[in-house]
Design brief:
With about 180 residues, this protein is mainly alpha-helical. It has helices spanning about 10-20, 20-30, 50-55, 60-70, 85-90, 95-105, 120-125, 135-145, 165-170, 175-180.
């Protein structure tokens, strides 16, 4: 049953980003720049995500830069799923977005969830466990390492796993090879 609730501006923008329409998202921001600093009002696991979380996850570099210029926080930890934009980008193997977010001041070892970091996110490899594009995940983990990520950070979930433990458990061979 369709909801009669009107979508907020931020959720309209997030939908444009999620659908891959970077140009339309940039035009939308031109008319409503304040939305760059807002978070989703939706319920569920993706609640609290910002447009920057989504732009990083979709590897929309120009949009990431614009959002930061408009005041989006590269260290926002408001999302319920992988709290930070950097972790969202790493989870999707979006190496260019990871580099862009790091350049914008994203904290490399920020708590993404349960003491996990972006390094854990790339090791888990998103919905394909890194098999969808192993080269992208390899480049992403290499970028995080070059930027000084803690490769031995122990997360509090699943019995205290390291990024290497996550990569091995998820059979994300490209990341596991780099971490070894």
């Amino acid at each position: 049953m369709p909801s009669n609730k009107k979508k907020s501006k931020v959720d309209i923008l997030i939908d444009l980003i999620d659908e891959g329409d970077e140009e339309e998202a940039m035009r939308f921001l031109a008319g409503s720049p304040e939305v760059a600093r807002e978070m989703s009002t939706r319920e569920g696991v993706l609640a609290g995500a910002t447009p920057l979380h989504w732009a990083g996850h979709r590897d929309h570099i120009r949009l990431c830069k614009l959002l930061v210029e408009l005041g989006a926080d590269p260290n926002s930890a408001s999302a319920r799923w992988w709290r930070t934009p950097l972790s969202w980008a790493a989870d999707a193997g979006c190496v260019d977005a990871v580099a862009c977010l790091l350049d914008a001041g994203a904290e490399i070892d920020a708590d993404a969830f349960g003491n996990a970091t972006a390094m854990h996110a790339v090791a888990q490899g998103g919905s394909t466990s890194g098999k969808g594009d192993p080269k992208a995940y390899r480049r992403t983990v290499e970028t995080l390492i070059k930027a000084g990520a803690d490769i031995n950070r122990v997360a509090s979930g699943d019995g205290g796993q390291t990024p290497l433990g996550d990569a091995v458990r998820n059979e994300n061979a490209a990341v596991a090879d780099v971490l070894r």
